[in-house]
UniProtKB/TrEMBL annotation:
Protein name as annotated: Radical SAM protein
CDD domains in the cross-refs: Radical_SAM
GO molecular function terms attached to this record: catalytic activity; iron-sulfur cluster binding; metal ion binding
Cofactor(s) the protein requires to work: [4Fe-4S] cluster
InterPro entries: Aldolase_TIM (IPR013785), BchE-like (IPR051198), Elp3/MiaA/NifB-like_rSAM (IPR006638), rSAM (IPR007197), rSAM_sf (IPR058240)
Stored SUPFAM superfamilies: Radical SAM enzymes
Amino acid sequence: MIHYSEPLFRPPSEANNVIIQITHGCSYNACSFCSMYETKQYKQKSLDEVFEDIETLNKYYSQAHKIFLADGDALAVDTSTLLQILKKLYASFPNLRRVTSYASPINLEQKSLEELSTLYEAGLKLIYFGIETGSDVLLKKIQKGTTFSKMKEGLNKASQAGFKISATVILGVGGREYSKEHVAQTARLVNETTLNYLSTLQLGLQQTKEAQFYKKFEQGFTWLDDKEMLEEQLHFLEALQPTNKIIFRSNHASNAFALAGTLPKNTNRLIDEVKYAIKDESLLTPSWLRGF
Ligand code: SF4
């Protein structure tokens, strides 16, 4: 029997991979827009339980190439425990090529370059990281528990350690009031780090989070409509000047208009596609067909 606890989330790109849950919930669990783990009390699973799960999953997926460590920020687990888990995984799955996990800004702050390098060498190859916004004003409002400089430092430390980074940005997270600030500071963060994958999704809020989210926007919060979301997307793409190759996607279930390309090579083509969609709203996926 596998010790999974629901709800269990994983990035879309991990849909076909083995999931080993090494924690329950998120060690931070305070972002005002996030309802993923609101029903879960954070807890680290015992090594015995994790090892038991690895052995059970190995019976069914012994040829697995990729494994995702859940839940919300598996990198919160202390480095020596993570190393024992990685060692067990690579010993159990002979074809394993990469292990991945979500990582929060706080996780990257707390781990030293040396620890991150050791984890990378042990086989943790890619982290999924929610930037959400690069704006300090908005980071405070959405209670992300970090700042522009701390994220920049953490992301650059992770890259230096060897990690590939897949990051997400939330369109519309500052409403109409902070759209310009959100675009400028988020693009600046992307330009000053070396992300490998970047995706944008549209803000969506579960009813249970609305009061907490709006409370910090003392002057009010005006939602962007789909056209305004696309305009924000457009300005964001225009402001990006990455120094490395980034695989860009905007194809989350929440997105009104899907985009895919490589930055900076396809930046102009992506910009043209967004401009086209802004002019012709019939190209947008109707909201009732979307989720978040
Ligand atoms: S760190 Fe991630 S999982 Fe945890 S509350 Fe924030 S957005 Fe949600």
